[in-house]
Amino acid sequence: MEILAFGVQADEKPLIEAAFAGHHRVRCLDVFLNEDTAPIAAGYEIVSSSVNADLAGRVLEILAAGGTRMIAQRSTGFNNIDLPTAERLGMTIARVSYYSPYAVAEFAWALAMAVNRRVVRASTRTRDFDFRLDGLMGRDMHGRTAGVLGTGKIGEAFTRIAHGFGMRLLGWDIAENPACVRLGMTYVPKERLLAESDLVTLHVPLTPQTLHLIDADALRSMRDDAILVNSSRGGLIDTAALVAELREGRFTGVGLDVYEAEAGLFFLDKSLEAVPDDILARLVTFPNVLVTSHQAYYTREAVGQIVGTTVRNVLDYRAGRRSENVLVPRS
C-alpha cells in the first residue's frame, strides 16, 4: 500500500521515507492538505496531514469520496479537524499525542531570551558594521517571575529551565503538576499570574474554552515591561488586541512562534507577494516583537518521534488496533 503525505518539509522527507521503509510506500508532497488539494488523494486509503492542514467538513467529504478511510495527522493539536464529520463519514483519525517537550520548551526560551536581549536587532546592526549598544539593554532573568500558563509536559520542561535561571515560579492550569510544585511553583488564578509575572509563556491546547485566553483584558492586566511568549497555538492570543497594546508602547518583548491566522502563510514562501493580512503586517514591524513560523517542534528528535508515531498509527489502523492516539476510531 502507498501512503500519501501532505505538507512534508524538505528536512522531514528523508525521515518519513526511512520510517515507512519496510512497511508501506510513501509519496511525499510539499503542498498542504485543503479543499483545493484534497482531490489529489483520490485512490489513497491512508493520507498523512501536517499541523497546518485544513480538515474541515468539506475537505473530509472530498477525501472520503475519493476513498480515503484514515488520516494520520503529524501533530498533537487537532483543532483543525472536524471530528464529528469524520465520525459520520466513518473515517479513522489519529494524531501524535506525545513528542519531545524539550523542543518546544527550549524554543520558547530562545524566543524569550532573544527579545529580552535584543538579539535580532543586534545581529541586524552588526551585519551593517554598526556596533553601538544603544537600545540593546536587556534584563537579568534571575530573580524575576515566570508565569507558566499550562503546566503539562512542555510547561514542566519550561519550568525546569526557569528554575535553573533562579526565577520565582507561578503556574496556572486545571490541575497542579507535582513536579512543578517540587520545583517551587505556586499555582495562582490567571489574573494574579498575569499581574505579577515578568515573563508569561503559553503552553495550553487550543479549545473553545482557551480561544483568546489572552484577550484585551488579560493584556491590559500584564506589566508594561513584561515579556509574552506563545509557542503553543496562535488562537490563544487575540492578536488585534495585542497590536493595540504594542502601539501604546507596552511590553519589553513579544515572541510568537504561532499566529491565529497562520494557515496559508506559515511554512510557505510569501516573500514575493503582498500579504493581505494587515494585523500580521503590522505585528512584524514592532522592534520588540519576534515572529517565527511555527518551528518550535522542529528538531531532529521531535520530528523523528512524530514520524515514528505516525507510522505506528498507520500500522495499528491496518491491524485493527486502537491506541491513545486515535481521535476517531475505525468504524
TrEMBL record:
Asked whether the keyword NAD is assigned, the reply is yes
Top EC class of this enzyme: oxidoreductase
- Per its UniProt record, what Pfam families does this chain match? 2-Hacid_dh, 2-Hacid_dh_C
* Database matches in InterPro entries: D-isomer_2_OHA_DH_cat_dom, D-isomer_DH_CS, D-isomer_DH_CS1, D-isomer_DH_NAD-bd, D-LDH-like, NAD(P)-bd_dom_sf
Q: Which UniProt keywords apply?
A: NAD, Oxidoreductase
PROSITE patterns, per this entry?
A: D_2_HYDROXYACID_DH_1, D_2_HYDROXYACID_DH_3
Q: What is this protein called?
A: 2-hydroxyacid dehydrogenase
Lineage of source species: Bacteria, Bacillati, Actinomycetota, Actinomycetes, Kitasatosporales
